[in-house]
Amino acid sequence: MNRTVVGVDIGNSTTEASVATIGPSGSVGYVGAALTQTTGIKGTVKNVDGVAKCVAWALEGAGIALADLDVVLLNEATPVISGMAMETITETIITESTMIGHDPRTPGGRGLGVGTIIAFESLADAEPGVAVIVLVPNGVDFEVVAAAFNAAGERGVEVSGAVLCNDDAVLVANRLRTTIPIVDEVSRIDAVPLGMLAAVEVAGPGQSIRTLSNAYGLATIFDLDPEQTKVVSPVARALTGNRSAVVVRTPSGDVADRTVPAGSLELIGMNRRAAVDVSRGAAEIMAAVQRVSPLSDVLGESGTNTGGMISNVRQSMADLSNHALADVRIQDLLAVDTVVPQEVRGGVAGEVALENAVALAAMVRTKETGMRAVAAAVAERLRDAGAHRVEVIVGGVEAEMAVLGALTTPGTDKPLVVLDLGGGSTDAAVIQTNGQIEATHLAGAGDLVSKLIDAELGLDNLELAEEIKRCPLGKAESFFHVRLENGTAQFFDTALPATAFARVVTLSEHGMNPIPTRHSLDRIRTVRRTAKERVFVVNALRALRSIAPAGDLRQIGFVVLLGGCALDFEIPDQIADAVAPYGIVCGTGNVRGTEGPRNAVASGLVASYAMSIQGDAMSTQGDAMSIQGDKVAPPDGAVPGGVGAHV
Ligand code: ADP
Ligand code: MG
Question: Of the chain's two ends, which shows fewer C-beta atoms within 10 Å, N or C?
Answer without folding.
Answer: N
